[in-house]
TrEMBL record:
Protein name, per record: Crp/Fnr family transcriptional regulator
Pfam family, one: cNMP_binding
Domain Cyclic nucleotide-binding as annotated: residue spans: 10-113
Positions of transmembrane segments: none
Amino acid sequence: MEEMINYILRFGSITPQQIDLIKSKAEVIHLKKGTYFSEANKLAKQVGFITDGIIRVCYYGNKGEEYTRCFVLENRFVVDSSSFFNDTPSSEYVEAVTDCTLLVFSKSAFSELSNTVKNWSDVFTRILTDALMKKVQASNTLLNQDATTRYVKFLELFPNVANRVPLSMLASYLGITQSSLSRIRKNVS
């Protein structure tokens, strides 16, 4: 819980009373590997803070091919923001890559925090903006690079992720085949 509060405080000041309210609204949940936090074609109903584990945002193509858009690591918030804030069905899946523990705010709890904690909306907007900027920065770093360079850059950006996610998901994120990634890993090691 303290990791979440410390993370929130990086984006704005909150009083001790507000912190107590935030803590009281968070519910601990455990997701098993392969379980969805939110699903495509459904409304996202919660915001989570990952205390343990890795989650990915993914979608499936017309022929069932899997595309990993991003990975979300410990001590970060995860939400399908478009679905959650606009009450529209999601176009993506938010899936536990590993067993995960999250602190979760339901839609009603989040709404209550927005109405009660004076600058909650501003703070959370800053959190979402920071996450989006980091996601774009990571994507731009990988864009227009050859496959080996993308893998090496991924290792630099996310040093403790490659050995915790399945090869198929990492290959999907990097936009290469699993067999190509296997060859690259052998050559880079």
